[in-house]
Design brief:
Largest sheet: 7 strands, mixed
CATH architecture: 3-Layer(aba) Sandwich
Strand order of the largest sheet: 3-2-1-6-9-10-11
Distance between the termini: 23 Å
CATH superfamily: NagB/RpiA/CoA transferase-like
Number of domains: 1
Radius of gyration: 15 Å
Mean pLDDT: 89
Strand content: 15-25%
Low-confidence stretches: none
Shape: globular
Length: about 190
């Protein structure tokens, strides 16, 4: 997919996300995300929402109460995979790159599950991000070591037809305000 097409898709997805966010469509999704992750306690990477991203914070609190260790992404350098620093409800947060908050002092963790923010997705589990390739590089690195589940978290309005590239890492599941789509539902 060329840069012009990606730029146009991002514009469409950002506009749709802005409308869904303003309408409060993500407010009731935290329970869906937490339910998808109802499993033995593990390490879950989430993210600190910026702009009109759907906010995983309520689910982060629920998962923390259920015994999961939670971490959030930290950009180490351009072109490098993300690191994940432990987050707790009591973490002191400071400004990080691109406006996302990061824990001031935290242990680096290797997640079992990564909740992935996105700009757009399709029903085949493809995602369109902001263009830096951070999550694709990160998921590739993590999955080279152990099975890591990637869950896209977005508004249903962000669904668009996408054409994947060879470096794109596919999502295992997508959670929106309309519910969750499991891998067999995505690919089947």
């Amino acid at each position: 997919m060329n840069a012009e097409i990606k730029s146009e898709l991002r514009k469409r997805a950002f506009a749709a996300r802005k409308v869904a966010h303003a309408a409060g469509q993500g407010d009731a999704t935290a329970h869906l995300l937490a339910e998808v992750l109802r499993q033995p306690a593990g390490i879950v990477a989430a993210y600190m929402a910026i702009r009109t991203e759907i906010d995983p914070m309520p689910a982060m609190h629920t998962l923390s109460q259920q015994g999961h260790r939670i971490c959030v992404p930290v950009i180490v350098a351009e072109g490098q995979p993300l690191e994940f620093h432990e987050w707790t409800p009591d973490s002191v947060m400071i400004a990080g790159p691109f406006g996302a908050k990061i824990p001031e002092n935290a242990e680096v963790l290797q997640p079992d599950t990564v909740i992935v923010p996105l700009v757009a997705f399709d029903l085949a589990g493809n995602r369109l991000g902001y263009g830096g390739g951070f999550y694709d590089r990160t998921l590739q690195r993590l999955r080279a070591v152990k099975p890591v589940r990637a869950i896209g978290y977005a508004y249903a309005a962000q669904q668009l037809p996408l054409t994947p590239e060879p470096t794109d890492e596919v999502l295992d599941m997508i959670v929106t305000e309309r519910g969750s789509l499991a891998p067999q539902q995505i690919t089947g």
